[in-house]
Design goal:
Elements: E1 2-7, E2 99-100, E3 103-111, E4 116-123, E5 129-134, E6 140-147, H1 156-163, H2 176-182, E7 186-189, E8 192-193, E9 197-204, H3 207-222, H4 230-236, E10 239-241, E11 250-252, H5 254-263, H6 266-278, H7 300-310, E12 316-322, H8 326-337, E13 359-366, H9 369-374, E14 382-389, H10 397-411, H11 417-425, E15 430-437, E16 444-452, H12 457-474, H13 478-494, H14 502-514, H15 527-538, H16 544-553, E17 558-566, H17 569-587, H18 590-608, H19 613-616, E18 637-641, E19 644-649, E20 656-664, H20 676-685, H21 693-703, E21 706-716, E22 719-734, H22 738-750, H23 757-777, H24 779-788, H25 793-800, H26 804-816
Parallel strand pairs: 1-19, 5-12, 13-17
Antiparallel strand pairs: 1-20, 2-3, 3-4, 4-5, 6-9, 6-12, 7-9, 8-9, 10-11, 14-16, 14-17, 15-16, 18-19, 20-22, 21-22
Amino acid sequence: MALRMHGALSGIGTASSQRAGVLRHLPSAIPARGASSFAATSSSYSNSLLRQSLKPCSATGALLPMGSSCASAWRGVCFAAAAEAPPAAPPAPASAVKEAHGFELQRQQWIKEYDSHMLIYKHKKTGAEVISVVNDDENKTFGVVFRTPVDNSYGIPHILEHSVLCGSRKYPIKEPFVELMKGSLNTFLNAFTYPDRTCYPVASTNKQDFYNLVDVYLDAVFHPRCINDPKVFEQEGWHYELDSPQDELSFKGVVFNEMKGVYSSPDSVFYRAVQQALFPHNTYSHDSGGDPTQIPALTFDHFQDFHSKYYHPSNARFWFHGDDDPVERLRILAEYLDEFERKEVSSSVATQPLLPEPRRVTEYYAAGEEAAESGAGEKGQAYVAVNWVMEDKEIDVETELALGFLDYLMLGTNASPLRKALNDSGLGSALLGGGMDDELKQPIFSLGLKGMDAANTEKLENLILSKLEELEKSGFSSSAVEAAINTIEFSLRENNTGSFPRGLSLMLRAMNAWIYDRDPLVPLQWEDALASFKARLASGEDVFGPLIRKYLLDNKHRVTVVLLPDPTLGAKVEGEEKAKLEAKMKSMQPKDVEEVVANTHELKRRQETPDAPEALSCVPALKLSDIPKTVTKVPTEVSSRQGATILTHDLFTNNVVYMEAVMDMKSVPLSLLPLVPLFCRSLTNMATEKESFVELVETIGRKTGGLSVFPFTSPIRNKPDEPLAKIMVRGKAMADKSGDLVGLVRDVLLGARLDDQARFKQMVEETKAGLETMVISGGHSFAMKRLNAQMGLAGWMSEQMGGLSYLEFMRNLSKRVGSEWD
């Protein structure tokens, strides 16, 4: 066994590191390409202030231990009032100039939560707004965001997001970003399409590399070659494809094909249906990512007009973050913005009025032969969720914070009462919807189950509403509230974004207010709101009951969405597409057919022909002198105790201890490998000898910043038959709670009671449902796992615990777990 410790340690026999430092904030969920949540677009993320809170701990000691006099409900929880005076704001940096390069400073503010100076500038000529964040973060971040609302589902923002990255005025090659990445040290390079905005962020720790990336992005969005070259539009959006006059005509295009894949996923279809049902009267009723049945209606003229209208500095919001010179940032922007004149752009997102009565909406997804044999929804193939638009007015930051805590209390862990009620109901196979989501202009709340019988829709509605009524009246246990407070406060103060740039996480959060013409700095200032919220709890105020009543129970803007399998839908959609293509083919003269054939060949030629070396020379490259000659070394102290090797890394971690216990799993028989992930999950999701499942989850919440167990496999170079195979126990806690963390690790490893059949069956069903969803949305990853399984034992083991073999095992186990438990 090996034990690894990071950061400030106390009480477990290692040196303590108590250096002062900055408290930063954990980001929202990390973006990933593909449709997500309530927008079937290329990239969309949930950026709630609290949603990303992982697991628990008391971060500052502000939360008092529970005493014997405390009541069992949340109203009796005792909290310490904030006793410390906030630190004085440091003086503004000398580089915070009031005017430079055509920009005027509009506002300057110190954000104590992130140890950052926020400088808000306006470009005098165009009115473009810039937030320039000055701090000591070496991972410099830039982003430009345009509001891009739509009134159709042609997918223009999505196609444009792809197309602007295909060459520009200054970088006239096919894929400048592909070439740039070959010699870049970037830590982030991507673009996102939301339902109402399009974002282009980059990040790098190397200053010259960062400025190269910024320049390429600015040229791409303001001077893309796609607006003058229809071939780029056809390649990225859609075009008719015909290799010869004798072949069948077809639709092709990068976004067209991508969205066909998105629409083949029942989960994506469901979330799109929820968004459109909740927002029937504004831009969210359309799909900014593009509906494959409507994408071919988009013309090049419409595409050009959209870029001209929305990709203008007057409709842009710019963001800089990091330790580079804020005046140099303005100079770089001015080189591009000074070419434009101010323009009135109508791009605001209309508010959806709250509807007077609840509704039920039924939609369908394309299903296979299994659905045809069983009948739509009869054997657990329906998706059902109850959904609310929570408000049609702006919600203040303290109320938003309180709603985030409420959301976590109801749904944040498997032991949370509303989530547990759904899981224990037996009505479906896995949870659907994520509770509160504040990514759009108006926050929503969505909750339901997949794998349901449609006939049980009313039962699900009644279960959710009755449980909300119960929680409004009875509240939450004191231990649950304490765990929620510690969990969220730990995450806010730790601000551990992993490999995701901190500056980008702040940008996405600020943007959730900024693009709706709200104060962009308010979402970043949670300290005072948190103190006020805790003071209200300490006073005995009923905080959560009125929120449940106002935003959910008494809110009539409620829509139950039922998604049913239709085994004929896929063939019907394909038939309609084929009929359109046949009609088009019949309408074309021989000359028109030859033009389509020639265009098909020209597109393929362009795609297959590399850029000339002299053309590629326009791409900026780092010089050797731009790269630091030294590398950062992690301090490591090696020791041993009772046969275990201990690695200690004395690093600044804001007094947080990070611990990993690593155990060899080579003794596990290969036939039992598919059970290892479930075994690991069971350790923290079942009872121990000391605590019930619910009590264990709450203790993890009160005492730590998170505790997880998982398998890890990796090949060893030149040893294909001798893989690295370990079980990892990973946890974190404040230094004064490190003893509690180690005690919990001991309890789950040595005292776990793996005898809860009902809970185990839930985990099997959830795992199976998750894998089945992943196969549709990420089939390529399963193919890669299967290929890697042929390369060595490590790849084979990984496939057995997470590939198609694992899915087949879960399907079989799902049938056996009820009858073969003993």
